[in-house]
Amino acid sequence: MRKSRMHSALGAHNAHLTSNLKEEQRNQLCGLLGNAELSLLYKASVHGYQASAFHQRCDHQGPTLLVAYNRSGYIFGGYTSVDYTQSGQYITDEDLFLFSFQGKIPVCIKINTGHNARLDDTGGPNFGQQLYICYNNQPIVYNSGSNVFSLNTATMYGNDTQLSECEVYKVEQSSHVSTEEKPWRNVLWTADRKAHLMGIIRNHKPLVPSVSRVRILMIGPVGAGKSSFFNSINSIFMGRMTSKAMSGSAGTSLTTQFRTYPVKDGREGKPLPFVLCDTMGLEEQSGAGLDIEDISSILQGHVSDRYKFNPTAPFQPHEQKASKPASLQEKIHCVVYVIDATKISLMSDKLQEKLASIRRKVNTLGIAQIVLMTKVDEACPLVEKNLQNIYASSYIKSKVQEVSSRLGVPVSCVLPVKNYSQELELELNCDVLLLTALQQMLNFADDYLDDVGHVEDKVF
Which residues neighbour 73 within 8 Å (Cβ) at sequence distance 6 or greater? Predict the structure, then answer.
């Protein structure tokens, strides 16, 4: 009884508090938390920066979101699902994350595995005992430099440690949202649906008889998940985890050759009617990563399997071969841009311009284009909990819209997926999303083949 009275008294007391969050920012944060509702508990400029003032208002309130503002205009903070109680215990909290607004959309940073979320003591709020807000009862942020979070303080808060405000919100899930919220795309998450998609893909016949297999070209920044997508599709049809293509998280591209990967229908099965073509990763500086002229040669079917890229010298087609156009079978029929959902807001102008110039080249040839948005589980905690939340997440929807506007492709051509990376077993939800994306690629390739028919398309 005492607790509920205390809550209602706090609620009445908080009624006059005004939030510094703009409505759009508030909506973005609510989407990141799964369409939650935020109510302001504590505002440092009103209640003071002391730890005691923070605990007086924020203890025993359940999940909370802290939002800090610094004098350089950065907005950042963190979420914890475990309430503050000053118990003196170390807290584990897998849902804990940090965020910072970089552009219009908050970028989410998850806690590294094996670390405690915080020490639940009488001090001010801290995340992983790495990021301290209102440190030593002062309007400052302090980073201890430990590796609980992989964070860059320059991008998170511009290395400006002086706070202009700190707010803490109580986070409450809207009970009606999960059941009544209409997904913005409909997906059947069933074994029957997976079997149906695999059947459609197995039996796919390219529209033009001279083309036996659709060629799909994967293009994207280093580490976005091009090779992982091939491995994931291969795993689904093999019925077990495979890793034929090199994938990982090196700073520069792990793929240095042009590779064409056919996929077989099971270990002894026949080849499926598509080939995934993997390229060197895009890098923003010139003279590094895949050259745009190389892409031009690949699109026109002049580059053979296992050609080794040289970033300082574009591909030189064999004179005799270049003089006669490649057959439609050798050309690329669908281009897929692979973009990491966690890095969309961090995409540099140089990389965006590189992608735009590639798109212009692809457009000249009329080749179908799709964007594969990977790592959705890392981008949104709601999706990490359950992949089936992907099309109920307003945060993922906003990411899809951001990719669409940055790359200039329709929203309907942006497909969010989760590649296999650490899993040891196949998962139905992953398979359904990946197969749906592959089916769409085959459909788009058919649109292109229907368009060119037997007429040779224009060369650059």
Answer: none
